Amino acid sequence: MDTEMSLSGGPLAIRNLVKEYRPGQPVLKGVSLVFPETGVTAIIGPSGTGKSTLIRCVNRLVDPTSGEIWFEGSDLAALSGSALRLARRRIGMIFQEYNLVERLSVIENILSGRLGYLPFWRVWLRKFPSEDIDRAFMLLDAVGLGGDFATRRADQLSGGQRQRVGIARALMQQPRLLLADEPTSSLDPRTSIEVMDLLGELSQRQHIPVVINIHNVELARRCASRIIGMSQGAIVFDGRPEALDDSHLKAIYGGEGWLQ
Amino acid sequence: MIGASQARRPDPFPTDWRLRGLKFLVLAYALYAASTLDLTWSRFVSGLGNGATFLSRMFPPQTAPDKLMLLWDGVLESMQIAVLSTFFGVLLALPLGILAARNLMLAPVSWAARGFIALCRSLHPVVVAILFVKAVGFGALAGALALIVASLGFISKLFGEAVEEIDMKPVEAARAAGGSFMGVMLMAVLPQVGARFIGFCSYQFDSNLRNSTMVGIVGGGGIGAPLFTAYQRFDYDFVLTILVTVIGLVLATEVLTGRLRRLFQ
Predict the structure, then answer these.
(1) pLDDT value of residue A100
(2) Domain range A1-90+175-260, its CATH number among 3.30.70.120, 3.40.50.150, 3.40.50.720, 3.40.50.300
(3) Chain A: nearest CA to B160, how far in angstroms?
């Protein structure tokens, strides 16, 4: 294992992360992980096992109880105030239910990815820099929607289209890391695969690590270059998708009748 | 077999004895209160005679030019009071409503804001107008200040509650993107409540227009003063002219603000 060696050099390294929502009942029991420069990492595991908590600790939507999260030379777990906001704008996040503002247009939703970079009056008066607007249209094409969608209201889109807008919004941040919390759980099978392929392609093209929580094991196998299996707040599998077999799935999810 | 299973089944609509007791208490108290206040049918019938004389003295409505000038000045002042008090009330209610929202603010902040809102809402605008007349003197200023307090209380309470009902998911996304407090407000909170806020403001404008005719009675400016004087001098024909004008104005505003709300839905 090259964990120790790359702790400072990797873009994202988590060390001994513990999160207790109630004292004495840890949801994460000292998780340590190092992520490579690029590639898709899928985190699988049953509901309530701390996958979502883990990913939300990284950008501090959830405050960890103890442990370190090293990202680009600083410990995210120790940041607060404007330092935290500066770190967050380098971390894109994609959500299960897209988390778009329904009443805003597609382009406004995408441009809200620049919130961490712009003074509030520019956002208020919609005086976005023209290079941001150009980039937003470019991303709209890149996620497969096209400029016609720019002025549509977000509530007029289908689930798959909304998730594409969510991805474009995250990319608008010019992130050095992309987090995705069950990005396909609200989508149909075909759209799920398209969205996962898009995330994999982006990881390669932009040279950033993508960390995805996912319930669908087959989809994780197909799209990820590394799979992490979690059970009851701890990591029970960490390896390439080919190495994941039924005995590992039994350790992750428990039981065995469902594997036949 | 069917009969047996029916017997074992719990009653799907059990009697709610608490509700039944409450209904009984309300009815009993209403009857008791009516008896002590001399609210009787015969009293009502004898009163109807007075009403008929009053109505007959209202016709035809007064249309003398000097009275119409008085009416016009009063109506204009009432309109101005309504517009100004709505404008400043809305301006102050926006930040106060956000401060009162428990999902965005720390508990002590929102409790303080909610306390202040409760204070604004605890007194009727006419009572507040009396206080302001004593404080700043007779005239439109006192009336406008009283209605600003009323607007502030109403809009910030409803707006604060609307903010508490928003979908927090976009807020989470804006925070995750590194948005500051103001950035999160602009991109994730206000777009969700903007249309409702415009609705509250237009309702409050309707209400301010009606109330601006009231504050004049206690010296707060507007059409209320000539209306009250006309009552006291038994100029019931002029009373009718004023009432018809006020009704027309309020109806016209309701139509206009209704259109405005539809426009922003």
Answers:
(1) 94
(2) 3.40.50.300
(3) 19
